């Protein structure tokens, strides 16, 4: 899959925090693409 | 056409069996197989949508780069807008009634073509979908025609409901394919999420299409309806500084255009251009 608007873990975290979420866990972190789990902060 | 076909023979796609007569090779014959049909749609999506936009990359950088990460969707402008001479966003444009047959429906098939079974299996294997109990709802937000939702439905316990949401015409297209496996619901993720308290709101390769300003709107439409046990699952890129060349960045010269210019103004990419003395 072609990459796009890329975000680091920190940038994902910042995005989540800005909408009342928090990053809980990243699954498959070693992969090019991963599953990012976020829950309410 | 003859010239194009002859060019392709140099990479073993078609052969010139006699002067100005061309025949399939084993490679080109793949195009005719039913299994390849969706790949054809993906290729046509690249060519007919993306490569046209890519021709306007430099103009788009000049005109829009400094605004890309700051504006809301209505003000977002990219190479696509210049190429197609419209102020509409790509996804609004391709789902205009008159554009659905050529662009909209093809986009749905192209996304299916880009998600081959082995890719879907791998990406879903990253997460334990069996943890959900009967009655739980998994919402595939912007899930297209439902090809991923249908795959998730095979991995969850009986009684777990998978609901795919997308634009009305996409839902109509998806119901013809997956309507007996999953529920498809018309919904625009720029409106408030209609299902409260779902176990999962799943966004697969959605947020990579949008700058942060717009992503906040998309996520902000979901957060208020989340229950105490709801979670958002996002399948997307997690970039690492040490994998610059293996995380898709090497494709950017194409991507910038392919992706309708939406990705053109990544600040990091502008930094890269600066380093190369190209800005």
Structural class of chain B: alpha/beta
Known CATH architecture of the largest domain in chain B: 3-Layer(aba) Sandwich
Largest beta sheet: strand ordering of chain A: 1-2
What share of the residues of chain A does DSSP label as strand, in percent? 35-45%
What's the total helix number of chain B? Answer: 13
Summarize model confidence as the mean pLDDT of chain A: 88
Order of helices and strands of chain A: HEE
Low-confidence stretches of chain A are none
By CATH, the topology of the largest domain in chain B is Rossmann fold
Describe the overall structure.
The complex is a heterodimer of chains A (41) and B (279). In chain A, 24% of the residues lie in helices and 37% in strands. Chain A has 41 residues and is of the alpha+beta class. Chain A has one domain. A two-stranded antiparallel ribbon of chain A has the order 1-2. In chain A, strand 1 and strand 2 form a beta hairpin. Chain B folds into three domains: 2-32, no CATH class; 37-114 and 244-279; 117-235, 3-Layer(aba) Sandwich (Rossmann fold), CATH 3.40.50. Chain B has helices spanning 2-9, 26-29, 37-54, 57-64, 79-84, 90-94, 100-114, 117-125, 147-153, 168-178, 212-220, 252-258, 267-275; strands spanning 15-18, 21-23, 137-141, 161-166, 183-186, 200-204, 231-237. In chain B, helix 3 crosses helix 7 (100-114), helix 3 crosses helix 12 and helix 7 packs across helix 10 (168-178). Classes of the chains: A alpha+beta (41), B alpha/beta (279). The interface between A and B is large, with 32 and 46 residues.
């Amino acid at each position: 899959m072609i990459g796009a608007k890329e975000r680091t873990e920190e940038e994902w975290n910042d995005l989540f925090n800005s909408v009342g979420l928090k990053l809980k866990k990243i699954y498959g972190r070693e992969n090019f693409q991963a599953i990012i789990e976020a829950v309410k902060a | 056409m003859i010239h194009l076909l002859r060019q392709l023979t140099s990479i073993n796609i078609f052969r010139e069996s006699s002067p100005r007569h061309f025949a399939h090779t084993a490679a080109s014959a793949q195009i005719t197989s039913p299994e390849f049909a969706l790949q054809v749609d993906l290729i046509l999506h690249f060519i007919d949508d993306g490569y046209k936009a890519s021709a306007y990359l430099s103009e788009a950088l000049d005109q829009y780069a400094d605004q890309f990460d700051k504006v809301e969707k209505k003000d977002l402008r990219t190479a696509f807008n210049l190429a197609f001479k419209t102020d509409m966003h790509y996804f609004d444009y391709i789902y205009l009634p008159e554009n659905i047959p050529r662009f909209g429906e093809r986009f749905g098939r192209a996304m299916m073509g880009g998600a081959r079974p082995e890719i879907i299996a791998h990406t879903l294997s990253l997460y334990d979908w069996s943890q959900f109990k009967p009655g739980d709802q998994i919402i595939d937000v912007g899930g297209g025609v439902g090809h991923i939702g249908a795959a998730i439905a095979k991995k969850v316990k009986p009684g777990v409901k998978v609901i795919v949401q997308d634009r009305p015409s996409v839902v109509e297209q998806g119901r013809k394919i997956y309507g007996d496996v999953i529920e498809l619901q018309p919904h625009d993720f720029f409106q408030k999420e209609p299902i409260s308290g779902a176990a999962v709101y799943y966004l697969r390769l959605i947020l990579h299409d949008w700058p942060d300003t717009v992503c906040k709107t998309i996520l902000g439409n979901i957060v208020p309806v989340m229950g105490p046990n709801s979670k958002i699952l996002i399948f997307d890129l997690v970039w690492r500084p040490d994998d610059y060349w293996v995380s898709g960045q090497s494709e950017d010269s194409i991507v910038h255009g392919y992706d309708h210019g939406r990705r053109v103004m990544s600040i990091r990419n502008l930094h890269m251009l600066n380093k190369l003395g190209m800005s």
